[in-house]
Amino acid sequence: MPDAVLGLETEDIKNHLGSILPGYRAAQLYTALYQQRVRAWEDVTTLTRQARAELAAAYVVGWPELQQRFESTDGTRRYLLRLIDGKTVEAVLMPEGARNTICVSTQVGCPVDCKFCLTALMGLERNLTAGEIVGQILYVLEDNQLTGGLQRINIVFMGMGEPLLNLPNVLKATRILTDVKGVGLSPRRITLSTSGIIPRISELGAAPVRPKLAISLNASSDVARRELMPITRKYSLSALLEACRAYPLRSWEKLTFEYVLLRDVNDTDADARRVVRLLANLNCIVNLIALNPGPGIPFGTPDPQRVDAFQRIVQKAMPCFVRKPRGRDVYAACGQLKRVSQAEIEQFPILVNA
Ligand code: SAH
Ligand code: SF4
Predict the structure, then answer these.
(1) Staple partner for 219: which of 61, 148, 224, 242, CB 3.0–4.6 Å?
(2) Cα–Cα distance between 25 and 7 in angstroms, integer?
(3) d(CA 25, CA 14)
(4) Hey, whose CA ends up nearest to atom 21 of ligand 1?
(5) Gap between the Cα atoms of 133 and 62, Å rounded
(6) Beta strands 212-216 and 255-261: pairing type?
(7) For residues 121 and 112, is the Cβ–Cβ distance under 8 A?
(8) Cα 3 from Cα 202, distance rounded (Å)
(9) Which residues contact 216 (CB under 8 A, 6 or more apart)?
(10) What is the pLDDT tens value at each position of the chain, 354 positions in all?
């Protein structure tokens, strides 16, 4: 399998491609990859014909290819993208007025065994490279002609996978995405969500260029969280909240806590009050997500009234929002990314889109 250049930073280009490209050409290739978004060597017109031929003999540019695109009735698009080794991952575009959110994967599958998540059923196939993470975003931007107005694009590392188990590649992708000479996205609009890999939280906090941090809380006590997210046995809820308190927030930043509401499991008023107590001294907001259902997921979605009641209690103490489900009908919503095919969509149609 040929190597890909997508995902290289200028220094990497100098180090790896020095025998083909003189050092001063490294910046030109970097601009071609991330600003001009070239997909093929013949499009890198700033390089000589000979350099292009030599590069093409040894490397591919490394864009993913479209395997399938699924269109939701609400405008959400789920992309099944094929990587250069043939493995596939999913990315999702959620347009909302002038704003677009792109949700990307950081691993093929996920090794964390959350009981409410379809991705968990895949297990982990492998980590994505920085180039494969950036490639998903470039693909979705190009496919939707999102060229100007990059400042209105939100990126969330909330697709398949646990980003903190692939932190070096996630950080490298973030540097390329936020570099003004790279993709040029706003660093304030990139967010990573984690199930709570505690040792990696402080490592993230120490990175000079990093996404905002969201934590999947999903339960109001250690005992309950262990049932839903077995990773809690390794990283307890109290230790997780301790790591959150120690996290070095930037002046403009707040922590986000996500809480998936499961009918009659973690959605009571008492749960909401416990959430308030757990998060009391943190500078944070809470995002509630009513469960997105799927085959093999043994939980139900709470009624909208229950979601409202939960929100009202938390809202008294801190900002609390209900995340609108997007793309459930095509298995594009949170926790539904398991490469579900058209045939499976028809076999297990999701009619809830409240
Ligand atoms: N692995 C990371 C990021 C990907 S999951 C994490 O767990 O945080 C993104 C979000 O979707 C998480 O907050 C997770 O709790 C939530 N989620 C998982 N399964 C879900 C489901 N079936 N319905 C709604 N949200 C779900
Ligand atoms: Fe992995 Fe996140 Fe799904 Fe848990 S919720 S299995 S960490 S993708």
Answers:
(1) 224
(2) 17
(3) 9
(4) 335
(5) 11
(6) parallel
(7) no
(8) 32
(9) 114, 193, 194, 195, 196, 229, 257, 258, 260
(10) 779 999 999 999 999 999 999 999 999 999 999 999 999 999 999 999 999 999 999 999 999 999 999 999 999 999 999 999 999 999 999 999 889 999 999 999 999 999 999 999 999 999 999 999 999 999 999 999 997 667 689 999 999 999 999 999 999 999 999 999 999 999 999 999 999 999 999 999 999 999 999 999 999 999 999 999 999 999 999 999 999 999 999 999 999 999 999 999 999 999 999 999 999 999 999 999 999 998 889 999 999 999 999 999 999 999 999 998 889 888 888 878 888 888 888 888 875 444
Tokens 């250049």 locate to 5
Ligand 1: list residues with CB < 6 Å: 110, 116-117, 158, 162, 193-195, 216, 218, 258, 260, 289, 291-292, 297, 334-335
184 neighbors 150 (Cβ within 8 angstroms): yes
Atom of ligand 2 at shortest range from CA of 117: 3
How many other CB atoms sit within 10 Å of the CB of residue 352?
13
* The token pair that represents 54 in the structure block: 């030599």
What phi-psi label fits residue 179: left (phi over 0), alpha (psi between -120 and 50 degrees) or beta? beta
Residue type, 326: R
Side chain identity at 293, as an amino acid letter?
A: P
Tell me the best of 112, 113, 115, 226 to mutate to test the pocket of ligand 2, counting ligand atoms within 8 Å of each CB and taking the most.
Answer: 112
Spatial distance between the Cα atoms of 9 and 134, rounded to a whole number of angstroms: 12
In eight-state DSSP terms, residue 2 is: -
In contact, 338 and 118? CB cutoff 8 Å? yes
Residue 137 CA to residue 149 CA, distance in Å, equals 15
Q: Taking the complete model, does pTM exceed 0.90, yes or no?
A: yes
